[in-house]
Amino acid sequence: MKNSHPDAPDDYAAALFALGHRFRDTGVLAVGGPDREAFLQGQLTQDTRNLAPGQSRAMAGLSPKGKLLYFGRLAALPEELLLIVAASARTAVLEHLRKYAVFQKVSVTDRSDELLLVGLYGPGAGAVAGPEGSVALPADGEFAAGLLVPGGDRAAVEDALARAGSMLVSTGAAEVLRVEAGRPRFGVETDPNSLPDELGLQAAISTTKGCYVGQEIVARLRTYGRVNRRLVGFRFPEEPVAAGTTFTDPDKESLELGRVTSAVLSPRFGPIGLGLAFREVPDGAALRLPGAPARCAVVAPLPFA
User: Fold this and answer.
1) pLDDT above 70 as % of the chain
2) Is cis: bond before 303, omega within 30 of 0?
3) Which of 62, 87, 289, 299 has a CA 20 to 30 Å removed from the CA of 114?
4) Residue whose C-alpha is closest to residue 30's, from 68, 84, 71, 73
5) End-to-end CA separation in angstroms for the chain
6) Which CATH class is domain 19-164?
7) DSSP-derived 3-state class of residue 244
8) What strands lie across the sheet with 286-289, from one edge to the other?
9) Could you give the residue ranges of the DSSP H alpha helices within the chain?
């Protein structure tokens, strides 16, 4: 394993230069029944048609006002469609879908305890195959690939990972890798007012499908306007800045210029973070706190490089 950052933890280096893995905490909701495709077609931002078993697509669910309720991936099994969402959102999403499923020929089931989501890091990820019944998932942020596998096959998956020389990636290293890649986390980079385009979720939105909840707002923004804020990276060149720090306009304190949502110490990039910046704040802008000039955040494009 070639490691150009010798002071970096071994699991971090494995994730970059060899093969690493992590069992991701996630929610998996199964939608079955003869109307499952049509039902989700009206619920999700993504086109649910013609998704063959084993395939998946990025997706999101919105409120009627276009606000993000959840985002993740839609994966197809022979008799079910699976919504892979943040673990923190699973209960709310389950209740939301069941409310809309009344009088339709669909069932919505929480299968989070029956299925495992394995995130694979590094150039060696392609060498790992899941057991029969697994769904292979594409690259997502810091992950080179993923596997959704039956929970009963965990031991077999762990054995396959060990034979491939994979290293388990710790929680700390995983968070650093996520921030470096610029992948937003639901409930961390999002709030109740988040819009999908603010988080860079364009791949989750179909521009050709029919009506879905929140579509009018999405279409209106893309045709006539633009979002007021965007997901960005922050570099902290003078001292680390904590998550939750808000930078305001020195001439108008009620105007938020940027907000740090995640902050880590990267072996490659030093103190960095993720957050939201007002649309008029350009890449390279330095935001400072009044009375604490060393608390500086420089807006950076994502992913970090």
Assistant:
1) 98
2) yes
3) 62
4) 84
5) 21
6) alpha beta
7) coil
8) 246-249, 252-266, 270-278, 229-235, 292-300, 286-289
9) 10-17, 36-41, 90-100, 154-163, 171-181, 215-224
In angstroms, the CA 139 to CA 35 distance is 30
Rg (CA), the chain: 20
Higher pLDDT, 168 or 219: 168
Q: Please, which pLDDT band fits residue 286 given cuts at 50, 70 and 90?
A: very high
pLDDT at residue 73, as a whole number: 98
For the record, the structure tokens of 269 come out as: 């990039």
CA atoms within 13 A on the CB side of 34: 2
When the pLDDT of each residue in the chain is averaged and rounded to a whole number, the result is 94
Q: How confident is the model at residue 103 (pLDDT cuts 50, 70, 90)?
A: confident
Task: List the domain boundaries for the chain.
Answer: 19-164
d(CA 129, CA 66) in angstroms, rounded, equals: 38
| CA 99 – CA 165 distance, rounded (Å) | 45
The pair phi, psi for residue 126, each rounded to 5°, is -65, -15
Residue pointed to by tokens 């999101």: 60
d(CA 177, CA 49): 33
Distance CA 262, CA 279 (A): 19
Q: Cβ(61)–Cβ(45) under 8 Å?
A: yes
Over residues 226-234, mean pLDDT: 94
